[in-house]
Amino acid sequence: MAADRLFEPLRAAALSAGRVRTAVAYPLCAASLGAAVQAQDAGYIEPLLVGPAARLAALMADMGLRAGSLEIIDTPDDERQAAAVAAALARDGKAGMLMKGSLHTDHFMSAVVARESGLRTGRRISHAFVMSVAAYAKLFILTDAAVNIAPTLAEKADIAQNAIDLARALGVARPKVAVLCATESVNPAMPATLDAAALSKMADRQQIRGGEIDGPLAFDNAISRLAAEQKGIVSPVAGDADILLVPDIEAGNMLYKELTWLAGAGTAGLVLGTRVPVLLTSRSDSVEARVNSCAVAVLHARALAG
Protein backbone atom coordinates (compact mmCIF):
# COMPACT_ATOMS: atom_id res chain seq x y z
CA MET A 1 0.00 0.00 0.00
CA ALA A 2 1.12 3.57 -0.61
CA ALA A 3 1.05 4.55 3.06
CA ASP A 4 3.39 1.69 3.92
CA ARG A 5 6.20 3.25 1.84
CA LEU A 6 6.99 5.64 4.67
CA PHE A 7 8.23 2.64 6.64
CA GLU A 8 10.83 1.72 4.02
CA PRO A 9 13.64 3.91 5.49
CA LEU A 10 13.04 2.36 8.90
CA ARG A 11 13.17 -1.13 7.46
CA ALA A 12 16.47 -0.36 5.76
CA ALA A 13 17.94 1.13 8.93
CA ALA A 14 16.83 -1.86 10.97
CA LEU A 15 18.39 -4.30 8.51
CA SER A 16 21.71 -2.49 8.86
CA ALA A 17 21.52 -3.02 12.64
CA GLY A 18 21.45 -6.81 12.26
CA ARG A 19 19.09 -9.44 13.69
CA VAL A 20 18.12 -9.23 17.35
CA ARG A 21 17.70 -12.42 19.36
CA THR A 22 14.01 -12.48 20.27
CA ALA A 23 12.21 -14.69 22.79
CA VAL A 24 8.84 -15.64 21.31
CA ALA A 25 6.46 -16.71 24.06
CA TYR A 26 4.20 -19.69 23.34
CA PRO A 27 3.89 -19.45 19.52
CA LEU A 28 1.57 -22.44 19.20
CA CYS A 29 -0.50 -21.45 16.19
CA ALA A 30 0.46 -21.00 12.56
CA ALA A 31 -0.14 -17.25 12.68
CA SER A 32 2.12 -16.55 15.66
CA LEU A 33 4.88 -18.93 14.59
CA GLY A 34 4.57 -17.65 11.05
CA ALA A 35 5.04 -14.07 12.28
CA ALA A 36 8.33 -15.04 13.90
CA VAL A 37 9.49 -16.86 10.77
CA GLN A 38 8.50 -13.91 8.57
CA ALA A 39 10.47 -11.53 10.79
CA GLN A 40 13.46 -13.87 10.63
CA ASP A 41 13.24 -14.21 6.86
CA ALA A 42 13.01 -10.43 6.55
CA GLY A 43 16.28 -10.12 8.46
CA TYR A 44 15.13 -8.48 11.70
CA ILE A 45 15.09 -11.15 14.41
CA GLU A 46 16.66 -14.44 15.45
CA PRO A 47 13.69 -16.23 17.07
CA LEU A 48 14.01 -18.26 20.24
CA LEU A 49 10.78 -20.22 20.64
CA VAL A 50 9.63 -20.64 24.24
CA GLY A 51 7.03 -23.32 24.91
CA PRO A 52 6.39 -27.09 24.93
CA ALA A 53 9.01 -28.51 22.59
CA ALA A 54 6.97 -31.47 21.32
CA ARG A 55 4.02 -29.29 20.28
CA LEU A 56 6.31 -26.69 18.73
CA ALA A 57 8.13 -29.36 16.73
CA ALA A 58 4.83 -30.81 15.51
CA LEU A 59 3.60 -27.36 14.45
CA MET A 60 6.84 -26.69 12.63
CA ALA A 61 6.43 -29.97 10.75
CA ASP A 62 2.83 -29.11 9.84
CA MET A 63 4.04 -25.76 8.47
CA GLY A 64 6.80 -27.38 6.42
CA LEU A 65 9.61 -25.93 8.52
CA ARG A 66 12.79 -27.95 8.83
CA ALA A 67 13.31 -29.62 12.20
CA GLY A 68 16.04 -27.82 14.11
CA SER A 69 15.80 -24.68 11.98
CA LEU A 70 14.52 -22.70 14.99
CA GLU A 71 15.89 -22.85 18.52
CA ILE A 72 13.40 -24.05 21.14
CA ILE A 73 13.41 -23.53 24.91
CA ASP A 74 11.25 -26.32 26.33
CA THR A 75 8.68 -25.40 28.99
CA PRO A 76 5.55 -27.05 30.40
CA ASP A 77 2.45 -26.62 28.25
CA ASP A 78 1.32 -23.58 30.22
CA GLU A 79 0.97 -20.04 28.85
CA ARG A 80 1.97 -18.30 32.07
CA GLN A 81 5.09 -20.40 32.57
CA ALA A 82 6.19 -19.93 28.97
CA ALA A 83 5.73 -16.17 29.30
CA ALA A 84 7.71 -16.11 32.55
CA VAL A 85 10.58 -18.06 30.99
CA ALA A 86 10.61 -15.73 27.96
CA ALA A 87 10.72 -12.69 30.25
CA ALA A 88 13.56 -14.26 32.25
CA LEU A 89 15.57 -14.77 29.07
CA ALA A 90 15.29 -11.05 28.36
CA ARG A 91 16.11 -10.16 31.95
CA ASP A 92 19.24 -12.32 31.86
CA GLY A 93 20.45 -10.82 28.58
CA LYS A 94 19.82 -13.98 26.57
CA ALA A 95 17.24 -12.19 24.39
CA GLY A 96 17.16 -8.59 23.28
CA MET A 97 13.43 -8.45 22.54
CA LEU A 98 10.19 -10.20 23.51
CA MET A 99 7.39 -11.23 21.16
CA LYS A 100 3.91 -12.45 22.08
CA GLY A 101 2.90 -15.79 20.61
CA SER A 102 -0.57 -17.32 20.74
CA LEU A 103 -1.13 -16.87 24.47
CA HIS A 104 -3.57 -14.43 26.03
CA THR A 105 -2.29 -10.87 26.10
CA ASP A 106 -3.04 -10.63 29.85
CA HIS A 107 -0.86 -13.66 30.58
CA PHE A 108 1.95 -12.32 28.44
CA MET A 109 1.89 -8.80 29.87
CA SER A 110 1.58 -10.11 33.44
CA ALA A 111 4.97 -11.77 32.97
CA VAL A 112 6.43 -8.59 31.50
CA VAL A 113 5.26 -6.29 34.29
CA ALA A 114 5.91 -8.70 37.20
CA ARG A 115 8.46 -7.29 39.63
CA GLU A 116 10.53 -10.47 39.47
CA SER A 117 10.81 -10.21 35.68
CA GLY A 118 13.31 -7.38 36.05
CA LEU A 119 11.98 -5.73 32.89
CA ARG A 120 10.28 -2.73 34.45
CA THR A 121 11.86 0.68 34.57
CA GLY A 122 10.94 3.68 36.67
CA ARG A 123 8.39 4.69 34.04
CA ARG A 124 4.82 3.73 33.36
CA ILE A 125 4.59 1.00 30.72
CA SER A 126 2.73 2.18 27.63
CA HIS A 127 2.02 1.22 24.04
CA ALA A 128 2.67 3.08 20.82
CA PHE A 129 1.43 2.58 17.29
CA VAL A 130 3.72 3.96 14.60
CA MET A 131 1.42 4.85 11.70
CA SER A 132 1.39 6.18 8.17
CA VAL A 133 -1.53 7.47 6.13
CA ALA A 134 -1.52 8.74 2.56
CA ALA A 135 -2.86 12.16 3.61
CA TYR A 136 0.03 12.89 6.01
CA ALA A 137 3.57 13.45 4.83
CA LYS A 138 5.41 11.55 7.55
CA LEU A 139 5.14 8.73 10.05
CA PHE A 140 3.50 9.55 13.36
CA ILE A 141 3.09 7.82 16.71
CA LEU A 142 -0.30 7.26 18.35
CA THR A 143 -0.20 6.64 22.10
CA ASP A 144 -1.65 5.06 24.20
CA ALA A 145 -4.35 3.05 22.48
CA ALA A 146 -3.72 -0.37 24.01
CA VAL A 147 -2.41 -0.45 27.60
CA ASN A 148 -3.37 2.50 29.81
CA ILE A 149 -7.12 2.86 30.24
CA ALA A 150 -7.53 6.27 31.87
CA PRO A 151 -4.04 7.61 32.57
CA THR A 152 -3.40 10.27 35.20
CA LEU A 153 -1.36 13.37 34.49
CA ALA A 154 1.78 11.72 35.86
CA GLU A 155 1.14 8.64 33.73
CA LYS A 156 0.56 10.79 30.64
CA ALA A 157 3.94 12.41 31.27
CA ASP A 158 5.57 8.96 31.17
CA ILE A 159 3.55 8.01 28.08
CA ALA A 160 4.78 11.18 26.37
CA GLN A 161 8.39 10.55 27.38
CA ASN A 162 8.24 6.94 26.17
CA ALA A 163 6.90 8.09 22.80
CA ILE A 164 9.50 10.85 22.48
CA ASP A 165 12.28 8.37 23.14
CA LEU A 166 10.87 6.01 20.51
CA ALA A 167 10.55 8.79 17.94
CA ARG A 168 14.17 9.78 18.57
CA ALA A 169 15.21 6.14 18.09
CA LEU A 170 13.43 6.26 14.72
CA GLY A 171 15.43 9.30 13.65
CA VAL A 172 13.26 12.28 14.65
CA ALA A 173 15.70 14.73 16.25
CA ARG A 174 13.14 16.70 18.29
CA PRO A 175 9.69 15.09 18.15
CA LYS A 176 6.58 17.27 18.23
CA VAL A 177 3.88 16.01 20.59
CA ALA A 178 0.25 17.06 20.15
CA VAL A 179 -1.85 16.37 23.25
CA LEU A 180 -5.26 15.63 21.75
CA CYS A 181 -8.55 16.83 23.20
CA ALA A 182 -11.97 17.70 21.79
CA THR A 183 -11.01 21.38 21.71
CA GLU A 184 -7.92 23.54 21.54
CA SER A 185 -9.10 25.69 24.46
CA VAL A 186 -8.44 24.98 28.13
CA ASN A 187 -11.81 24.23 29.72
CA PRO A 188 -12.06 23.40 33.45
CA ALA A 189 -15.13 21.28 32.68
CA MET A 190 -12.95 19.03 30.47
CA PRO A 191 -10.16 17.53 32.60
CA ALA A 192 -8.22 16.32 29.56
CA THR A 193 -7.62 19.94 28.52
CA LEU A 194 -6.14 20.72 31.94
CA ASP A 195 -3.80 17.72 31.64
CA ALA A 196 -2.80 18.86 28.16
CA ALA A 197 -1.92 22.34 29.36
CA ALA A 198 0.04 20.90 32.29
CA LEU A 199 2.00 18.56 30.02
CA SER A 200 2.95 21.49 27.80
CA LYS A 201 4.28 23.41 30.80
CA MET A 202 6.06 20.30 32.13
CA ALA A 203 7.96 20.13 28.84
CA ASP A 204 8.85 23.82 29.17
CA ARG A 205 10.28 23.05 32.62
CA GLN A 206 12.23 20.03 31.31
CA GLN A 207 10.16 17.56 33.30
CA ILE A 208 9.59 15.88 29.94
CA ARG A 209 12.67 16.01 27.76
CA GLY A 210 13.68 15.74 24.14
CA GLY A 211 10.60 17.05 22.39
CA GLU A 212 8.15 19.90 21.84
CA ILE A 213 4.75 19.46 23.51
CA ASP A 214 1.63 21.51 22.89
CA GLY A 215 -1.95 21.07 23.94
CA PRO A 216 -4.79 20.99 24.14
CA LEU A 217 -5.07 20.52 20.39
CA ALA A 218 -8.02 19.07 18.52
CA PHE A 219 -7.15 16.41 15.95
CA ASP A 220 -7.57 18.72 12.96
CA ASN A 221 -5.24 21.32 14.48
CA ALA A 222 -2.65 18.68 15.29
CA ILE A 223 -2.32 17.37 11.74
CA SER A 224 -3.35 20.31 9.53
CA ARG A 225 -1.54 23.65 9.36
CA LEU A 226 -4.52 25.10 7.50
CA ALA A 227 -6.92 24.12 10.27
CA ALA A 228 -4.58 25.61 12.88
CA GLU A 229 -4.20 28.85 10.93
CA GLN A 230 -7.94 29.18 10.46
CA LYS A 231 -8.36 29.04 14.23
CA GLY A 232 -5.48 31.42 14.88
CA ILE A 233 -3.34 28.83 16.63
CA VAL A 234 0.34 29.73 16.77
CA SER A 235 2.29 26.61 17.70
CA PRO A 236 5.44 24.75 16.61
CA VAL A 237 3.47 21.50 16.90
CA ALA A 238 0.14 22.28 15.24
CA GLY A 239 -0.07 20.85 11.75
CA ASP A 240 3.25 19.02 12.07
CA ALA A 241 2.84 16.53 14.92
CA ASP A 242 5.11 13.50 15.19
CA ILE A 243 3.24 12.12 18.20
CA LEU A 244 -0.49 12.15 18.98
CA LEU A 245 -1.11 11.64 22.70
CA VAL A 246 -4.73 10.69 23.36
CA PRO A 247 -6.67 11.34 26.58
CA ASP A 248 -7.67 7.71 27.20
CA ILE A 249 -7.70 4.25 25.68
CA GLU A 250 -11.18 4.62 24.19
CA ALA A 251 -10.21 7.68 22.16
CA GLY A 252 -6.94 6.05 21.14
CA ASN A 253 -8.44 2.71 20.20
CA MET A 254 -11.17 4.30 18.09
CA LEU A 255 -8.68 6.60 16.35
CA TYR A 256 -6.32 3.70 15.63
CA LYS A 257 -9.09 1.56 14.14
CA GLU A 258 -10.57 4.42 12.12
CA LEU A 259 -7.19 5.20 10.59
CA THR A 260 -6.51 1.52 9.92
CA TRP A 261 -9.86 0.46 8.49
CA LEU A 262 -11.04 3.67 6.79
CA ALA A 263 -7.79 5.40 5.84
CA GLY A 264 -5.74 2.27 5.05
CA ALA A 265 -3.00 3.22 7.49
CA GLY A 266 0.28 1.36 7.60
CA THR A 267 1.06 0.34 11.17
CA ALA A 268 3.60 -0.97 13.63
CA GLY A 269 3.08 -1.55 17.36
CA LEU A 270 5.38 -1.70 20.36
CA VAL A 271 5.24 -1.75 24.17
CA LEU A 272 7.43 0.93 25.73
CA GLY A 273 8.77 1.70 29.19
CA THR A 274 10.42 -1.72 29.53
CA ARG A 275 14.11 -2.64 29.49
CA VAL A 276 13.72 -4.40 26.14
CA PRO A 277 11.23 -3.85 23.30
CA VAL A 278 8.06 -5.92 23.61
CA LEU A 279 6.06 -6.90 20.52
CA LEU A 280 2.34 -7.59 20.87
CA THR A 281 1.65 -9.34 17.59
CA SER A 282 -1.92 -10.21 16.66
CA ARG A 283 -3.35 -12.92 14.44
CA SER A 284 -5.16 -10.17 12.51
CA ASP A 285 -1.96 -8.23 11.78
CA SER A 286 -0.94 -8.04 8.15
CA VAL A 287 2.48 -9.26 7.06
CA GLU A 288 3.44 -5.62 6.52
CA ALA A 289 2.41 -4.67 10.06
CA ARG A 290 4.43 -7.54 11.53
CA VAL A 291 7.52 -6.65 9.56
CA ASN A 292 7.12 -2.95 10.36
CA SER A 293 6.76 -3.74 14.06
CA CYS A 294 9.93 -5.80 14.08
CA ALA A 295 11.85 -3.07 12.25
CA VAL A 296 10.69 -0.47 14.78
CA ALA A 297 11.54 -2.80 17.66
CA VAL A 298 15.07 -3.40 16.34
CA LEU A 299 15.74 0.34 16.12
CA HIS A 300 14.34 0.85 19.61
CA ALA A 301 16.47 -2.01 20.94
CA ARG A 302 19.56 -0.39 19.46
CA ALA A 303 18.68 2.90 21.17
CA LEU A 304 18.07 1.20 24.52
CA ALA A 305 21.43 -0.54 24.26
CA GLY A 306 23.02 2.90 24.00
UniProtKB/TrEMBL annotation:
Listed name of the protein: Phosphate acetyltransferase
Phosphate acetyl/butaryl transferase domain segment(s): 81-298
PANTHER family referenced in this protein's UniProt entry, alphabetically: PHOSPHATE ACETYLTRANSFERASE
Gene3D superfamilies noted in UniProt: Isopropylmalate Dehydrogenase
InterPro entries: P_Ac_Bu_trans (IPR012147), Phos_Acetyltrans/Butyryltrans (IPR050500), PTA_PTB (IPR002505)
Gene Ontology molecular function: phosphate acetyltransferase activity
Keywords attached to this entry: Acyltransferase, Transferase
One Pfam family linked to the record: PTA_PTB
Highest taxon of the lineage: Bacteria
Membrane-spanning segments: none
Record organism: Achromobacter deleyi
EC numbers on record: 2.3.1.8
